[in-house]
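Feature request, filed as a ticket because there's no other form

It would be nice if the structure record came with a short human-readable summary line next to the tokens. Right now we just get the raw output. Example of a typical job, pasted below so the devs can see what we mean:
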Amino acid sequence: MFANGLLNGRRILVTGGGSGLGKAMASRFLSLGAEVHICGRRKMVCDETAAELMKEHGGKVVSHGVDIRDAAAVDHMVGTIFETGPLTDLINNAAGNFISRTQDLSPRGFDAIANIVMHGTFYVTQAVGKRWIEGKHRGNVVSIVTTWVRNGSPFVVPSAMSKSAVHAMTMSLATEWGRSG
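Raw output as currently delivered:
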């Protein structure tokens, strides 16, 4: 369906790229010619994914072990990536979730989700975006959200609230950063 080499010259960061949807997206981007960076808390998982994808498709996958809940660690990772050239695209895919009756949620349980989905997504987006703006680079951000953003859903309140925040951030930044490309 897509032309070979469609993503040649693209440098794409996929958060949560070591498994699941992130791994599938990273695989497809690589197969279309992109240089792919994947990150996740479990560096070994990302390393294994990078090796597997390069064996399958060739190309270049760079693995980063980072907890996106740590703003300083995220900024360091993004700075390291930009040392060899700017990213062209960011896929905010990393997430956490569990099923729980809202009345049973502890503050720690709520924060576990909100800190990954809302805070982590912001930290990565800001770290990449400020470098794009400073360097006058154009870029694209895709953030994975859910239908819960529009209609809510029982038993996943921390995720629904956090994904709604990501959606609001995306709309806000489209207006704020759009003029910078």
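Something like this underneath would help us a lot:
The mean pLDDT is 96.
The longest strand covers residues 35-40.
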